[in-house]
Amino acid sequence: EAGVAQSPRYKIIEKRQSVAFWCNPISGHATLYWYQQILGQGPKLLIQFQNNGVVDDSQLPKDRFSAERLKGVDSTLKIQPAKLEDSAVYLCASSSYRDSPPGAGELFFGEGSRLTVL
Amino acid sequence: AQSVTQLGSHVSVSEGALVLLRCNYSSSVPPYLFWYVQYPNQGLQLLLKYTSAATLVKGINGFEAEFKKSETSFHLTKPSAHMSDAAEYFCAVSYSGSAGKSTFGDGTTLTVKP
Questions:
Q1: What is the pLDDT of residues B19-77, one digit of tens each?
Q2: I want to staple A29 with a disulfide (CB 3.0 to 4.6 A). Which of A47, A56, A68, A94 is the partner?
Q3: Contact, B64 vs B57, CB < 8 A?
Q4: Of residues B4, B92, B100, nearest to A95 (C-beta)
Q5: Of B9, B44, B96, which is closest to A103 when you measure between CB atoms?
Q6: Is pLDDT of A100 > 80?
Q7: What is the mean pLDDT of residues A49-53?
Q8: Looking at residue B17, what is its pLDDT?
Q9: At a CB cut-off of 8 Å and minimum separation 6, what does A6 contact?
Q10: What are phi and psi of A90, to 5 degrees?
Q11: A103 touches chain B (CB under 8 A)
């Protein structure tokens, strides 16, 4: 079974530029998450999708961040314009709850996209 | 709201020694608890999880954790550390109404000395 795929792995941009990250979840996983991991901290949820609908985007800085999940499969996270404090690893994760109680399922993570904003 | 506190951002042990990584949680409802491991330049992968069945949970690579409600703790242990255990470890909490989202602690970096 293929894992969660993310690209690009690394991106360096100047502040005020834009960047986009792509994620392809495990086949059949209905739920997709984007997490932001700043150096020295744990992952922080940005947005959660169930199929192609948004479940939670309360922590997404909507003035500069946007995300979509067309057709309930792939997802794209965009930052425009980027700030220095956006330097982080952006982790995509997916999950399926067929074999677990609601809320108890394992998250499967991609390797992340490391963003450096200069 | 749920939260997790991991005591000690860095833990160093000798190879063959006991590994103990501490996690305390805060939750107003019965929690689900997880430990994930992250190797350099990789994503997180699940070590083990507690979902209200047995309080002592065994995971991969010889790790186990015990859920203690009275202490609101879910500490991770391994009897004998191996060099390959060197990584960052994250404790996470969710609950049945969370729609699956997990809240993570800030992580503990484990160093294993030869």
A1: 999 999 998 888 899 999 999 888 899 999 998 778 999 999 999 999 999 999 999 99
A2: A94
A3: yes
A4: B100
A5: B96
A6: no
A7: 88
A8: 98
A9: A21, A22, A23, A24, A90, A91, A92, A110, A111, A112, A113
A10: -100, 115
A11: yes
B99 closest CB neighbour out of A43, A103, A107: A103
Q: Spell out which chain B residues touch chain A, with contact meaning CB-CB distance below 8 angstroms.
A: 4, 9, 32, 34, 36, 41-46, 49, 51-52, 90, 92, 94-107
Would you state the structure tokens that stand for residue A89, as one six-digit string? Answer: 């690893």
According to DSSP, the β-strands at B10-14 and B108-113 are parallel
Tokens of A16: 């005020």
Give the per-residue pLDDT at A52. Answer: 83
Identify residue A20 by its one-letter amino acid code: A
Q: What is the mean pLDDT of chain A?
A: 92
d(CA B105, CA B76): 13
Å between A109 CA and nearest CA of chain B? 5
